[in-house]
Structures are given as structure tokens and as C-alpha cells.
User: Fold this.
Amino acid sequence: MPFVTPKSQQRAYDVIVVGSGAGGGQSAYTLCMDGARVLMLEAGRHYAPETETPMFQTPDMAPLAGVSTPQKPFGFYDATADGGWTVPGEPYVRATEEQAGRFEWWRARMLGGRTNHWGRISLRNGPYDFKPRSRDGLGFDWPIGYEDVAPYYDKVELLVGVYGSNEGLENTPNSSPGCLLPPPAPLVSDYLVRQRARHLGIPVIPGHRAVLTRAQDFKRVPALLHPGNTKAQKILAEAMRARSPCLWATPCGRGCAIRANYQSTTVHLPPALATGNLDIATDAMVYEVTLGRDGRASGVSFIDRKTGTHQQAAARVVILAASACETVRILLNSKSAQFPHGLANSSGKVGRYLMDTVGSTVTGQVPLLESLPPLNEDAADGHQLYVPWWLYREQLAGKLGFARGYHIEFGGGRRMPGFATMQGIEWLTGGSYGRKFKEDARRYYGSFVGFDGRGEMIPNESSYCEIDPSVKDEWGIPVLRFHWRWSEHERRQAAHMQRTFGDIIEAMGGRTHPAVERDGAKAIAPGGSIIHEVGGGIMGADARSSVTNAWSQTWDVPNLYLTDGAVFASNADKNPTLTIMALAWRASDHILERMRRKEL
Amino acid sequence: MDRRTTIQWVLAAGAASSLLGPRTSQAGPVTAWRGASGSQGYGTDPNLLKVYRPGDFWPLTLTAAQRRLAGVLADLIIPADDQSPSASAVGVVDFIDEWVSAPYPDNQRDRPIVLRGFAWLDAQAQRRFHKDFAALDAAGHKAICDEICDPARAAAGRRDAARFFALYRDLTAGGFYTTPVGRKDLKYIGNVPRANFDGPPAELLSKLNLP
Assistant:
């Protein structure tokens, strides 16, 4: 019985995993494939992408043409159920309403968490990204280096399926041979961006996304990932054969019924369940890690949302992978005589050094792309090409005025028309209506290219979360209060993004509207809004200045691990999900080894 | 709808904050949106596989006279031509009624702009031609619309009307180009499964001098 209720749950497990997204999914996969008995607790509902995904539905079939609303903030067909910038019954608090201190907290409440809707962009951190303080004196070094994580990046890429290419660029690591799937062909607009950006000295290379551009090699990969474990090899081969390659249509954010992209629910959980070692309880809202007399975690307390009752579960090891801030909330709410300020918080660092990604956007209209012949440009749903950070030398020499880099995600093409596709174009049409408007729409459709900067934020003392002294959620669990500050590094970086995007659009013969923003404070998206929030339980070299050691194991409680973004000691411009999975696999290997040695 | 589309829509709608939860002047709990005007919306977990029609989640509220005006104006913006039918022929009046009747913040923001715009059009038509706007001939429609079709060129006394017209054009285009007819009009040929994606044809790239 893989999906359990409090009644059918076993009396004890080897490991409890809290959360079912990238970190929880990878942890459960690694542990179960090697024989550990795992109970996964997910706060949201059960979710089955194979039967719930609206693959080919069109906007006219949805309310309000499928636009974003507060109840479906990424549009009606977005995979996210019961989630978004707000969650009914689960408030949070901002310490200030000033725009500069604004933090937005995205949550998903469903099996697989936000992996069901994420952008699938899968970039590796490079060597600099693990040792940023050594390089420029700011922020923190991780207690591990790229060489420690590289084998796990290889494994994750082989397991989930990531397309991309090896270009050998600075701090933009190559994968080992045979790890990556071939990248998709570029669109017309991609070719144009690449040609013109190169004139400006800006490199444009194939993107990396967790989308199967061809079927996975089920004969070769399982033996690489699970040497000597024939049961795991067989299960993984079956799971890989159950996935289909991309059919080159429909947005990945809806989820994928044919399992062509990575989501925990289609890639991690099916093989983990097939081992027979995984039980999953959904609607299980964990609020506390319980502490035994021996000072070790004994299990967790949770609320069964279906009955509103308080429940317990016990295990030898507890893994929190509830998403960085929810993990922090559970730790801070786990108070005891031994840990009066929250579990694993003897350093006082739980909740500290919250980071998001610096985001800024410019859209251009490009006459060269007007009135193109009909083309099916659905492709792999974007990110065929991207721009890795390219000004390392200038930055280190202090020529840029900000310390960390960004990459550029861009996209155009004749994509499925949505509610906004032909809106707000008076600046091009002079306010046409009637037959002229229809002609204008045909002319301008597909001629827009959008540029999104995704940049590194340096951790600071003013960006953190804590437990609010009075506000509780509908079950009486104290909620988080967020404090947020960008530094001048991030604001200047956002202004640099705007200038650069304007330059690229101009080099394409295009125009921007409105004009690019010169004020970085206005150009930067609010904290949390890029949904790359990490930190709050950072790993470090000693127990005084960090929450976990190099294995994502809390310093204070040896059988308590954090395998979501909480452990990030820096937040490179690279999107965090691939690194979350690599570190979760690495931490799970560490747990397995310690359990075999009876240390856990 | 991907993140970029969401952002574009936010920019287009000029509603940079409404998606990101309520904004208040002082710090306090950030709570989930609650329904307005009697409707709780479609909830946070609607069935995504069903096909919906305007009116399924909240009642449509425009009067018969407003719907008549809505159709006339939508067809002035997107009339039939040799390639496709008019906006009203593909259900845009129902879409606009659904839009201005919906309980969400952006809809509630747009509703009074649209209703005031309708009233202004009728008042103009009465003052200048002694008829309701819907009953005017082509010359009457043109006389009024030409003055308000471009917010950048509208006279000082016409700015609100021009803002209404721009919004209404956006709603009409949003309703029209999301229908099968609208997609065909723009020659969108995707949303079909394919075995491969080979990128654009070589002759097109060479015509555009792209490598």
C-alpha cells in the first residue's frame, strides 16, 4: 500500500522525508532504490499528472481565456493546484510593506510540489559558485567544491534527462560525456538573437532543460546509476521506458502526461514506489520534528488535513525537504528545553541568509521578425538557447560596480496566442481599429522577443525569516514573518540587465516599449517573485556560523538532514533545482552509508 | 501560461501588483484572495480537463442593451474581412461579459471602466447624432472612435474615453485571438504532437541572412 493514511502507516521507518518536490523526490528515490524504508509526507493533495494534465486544451476552453488570477497565478492551465503567492488558510507576514522590503512567498500544496510547474531550466553551479567569498570577499564559501558535486550532477542529469551542450565556457561546467540529451533546434528569433548578441561579444549557447529530446537510454543508464544493484537497475529501466520523448507541443508548466519532462511525480516517485520501500501520505502537514531523550530526532508531528487530527510518525532519520522557508518554519516551530530557539538552531542561523534570484525583464519588437510565413514554433517550450554570464574578468577587475553575474533567458516565436498576445500595441499601430487592426495583428504577431535576467544575490543580514509572534494558520501553527533587503550589488546588476537587453534588442534592429529602466531599484523584481528562494539553513564549515555540515546534516542533530534549497550558502545565477537534486542525492548516499555502519 | 506570458500580461494590463497578492499600506498577514460580489471564483483547484463556457463560474451581468453595444463596438475593432469573421461572431460578447462580471481584482478594476465607457459612447452618440451608439451608421461610429482610438493622440477631454477604448480593444483582441478562428487568422499552426522538431526551413534562414 504505497499511499497511506495515518491508520495504515507503518510503526517505524528508516527515514521520514518531509516534502515531495525536487529535494524530497530525489531523497526518496535514492534511499528506496538502496533498500531504505521511507515515509514521505506531503502537505498537499495527491496529484496524478498522467490523468490531470490539460495537454492540448486551448485558452477558449478556460474561464477568462486562461489568464492569471489570484487563484491560478500562472494561468488557469498551470499545473499548480492549491498554491501560488497565497495559500488559503496559510497566511504569512511581511515585516514591512515598503516596496524595497517586499518578499513574495510562493508555495505549492500538491504531490510533487513546484516541480510540476517549474521552468525545467537545469544549470550546474560552477567552481566559482561554491567559493564566492574566496573569489571576491563577499558572502560565504560552501564547505564543498564543484568537484564534490560534479558526480551528482552527472547522475541527476542521467536520471531525469537534461538536454544541453558542453561549450567549455568559464564557470559554466561541461557534463561528463554521455550525460546530456541533444538540445532542440533554435527558432528564427533565437538565430537572430544569437547572431546580433555575438556582435556585442555576448555568447549564446544551447540551454539546459529537463526535457527528453529523445528517449532515455534504458539499457545503458540504469547500470551507471546503480552499479551492482540489479533490482534498482530493472526498476529504473522500466521507469525510463514508461517515459516518452517530447512531442514538441504544449507548455511544460501544465505538467506532462507523457512524462517527457522532469517532475517529481513522473520521474522520482514512480520508481521509488516500485521498490515497495516507499509509503506516501498526502494532506500531511508537518509542523514539528520531535526530539528523543537521546537528543536525536525521533520523528515528526503532522496534521492530517482531511480529518484535522494531529498525528505522529517515527523513523531513524528525518529529512526536511519542504522548500527552504517551510523547512525553516518547521525547525523554528520545533522548540524544546534543549532547543528553546528552534531545532538545530544553536547557531541562531536558522532562517538567516534568505536569498532569491535577481530578476528583470525587457521585451523588444523586431521588424525583421514581422510577417513571417506560418511556422510551428512550439518547440520544447522555450530556452532552446541562452546566454551564460560572460563578464567574469571585467567583474573581478571591479569594472562593473556589482560583484556577481547573471544569465539571460530569452524567447520569441509564433507561440500559441494568449489573452495578451495582441494587447497594448498602440505604440506600434497608432491606435488602429477595424480591418487595419486585423492586418496589424497579423504583421506583429510573432515579432516580439522577451529577455529575462536571472542574477546572483549575495546573502545579507537583513534578508531572513522568523516566526511571527502572533499570527497562526488555520491549524494554529505559527507562521513566518519575512524581512527583505536588496543590496547595491543587486540593484546595479538589474540596471545592467536592462541596458544589456536594450543593446541586444537594438542590435536586432528592434525597439523596446517602454524604454529600458535605468533605476535598478525599479528594474528589480520583488524578493521571492522569481521563486528561487534558498538559504535559511545554510551549510558551512563550522557549527557556529551555519546550520548544516557539508553533507546537509544538521550540526546539532545528527539524524536530521535538510535536502531542499535551505542549505544553499550562495545563490548563483544558475537556477537552483538541479543543484537541489544533486545535493539531495549526495546527502542520501551519506545517510545510507551511515545507516549501514549503524551510526544512524 | 509561462512566466514570461504572465509578466507580459501584467505589463499589458498595467496591473503590476495585483497578481502578487493584496497590497496594503501597513504590514500585516498576507492572506489568500477572497471572493467579491458574491462569487468565490473557480477556486484554487479547478478541474482543468473540462471545457468551460462564460457563466459557468459566475453569472453574466451585462444588460441586453449593454451586450448590443458590446457587440457593435467589438465588431468595429475586429470586423469580418476576407480572412476571418468578426469578433462578435466568435463569442467575444460573451467573453467580455464574463470578463467584466468576474470577481477577481483585475476584472473588478476593469468593470467600471467598461460600463462608464459604454455610457459615455451612448451620451456622445445622443449629443451628436440623437441616437444610441449601437444605432449609428458607419460615419457616426467613425466620427466618435477616431477621436478616442489612440491614447497618445486623444484630446485632453477625451483621455478617459481613450483609455476605455484601449482597454476594450485589448479585451476584444484577447477574446478573439484565443479562439480557433483567431488562432487561424494569425496563422498559428502549433499545438499538435510531432515526432521531431527540426527548426525553421533553411531557405527562410538564408532569406533572413541568419546562419
Q: What stands out?
A: Chain B has a mean pLDDT of 89. Residues 64-189 of chain B form one domain.
